[in-house]
Amino acid sequence: MANFELLKELTQAWGVAGREKAVRAIVLRELEGHVDSAYVDNIGNIIAVKHGKGSPDSKKIMLSAHMDEIGLQVKKIESDGRIKVCSVGWVWTSALYNDQVVFQNGVIGVVGCDGKIEDAKNDSGKLYIDIGCTSKEDTEKYVKVGDYAGFVGPWYELQNGRISAKTFDDRVGCFMLLEAVKRNKGDCPNDVYYVFSVQEEVGCRGAVTAAHQIRPDIGISVDVTPDHAYPCDLEGCNAVGEGISVTLGDPSAMLDEELVNEMLVRGYEFLPIELGKSRGSKYVVEDGKVRLPFCALKGLGGAAAEALERATIHGEEYISVEELQQASGVGSSILDRLRQVGALGDLPESSQVSFF
Question: Is 349 a catalytic residue?
Answer without folding.
Answer: no
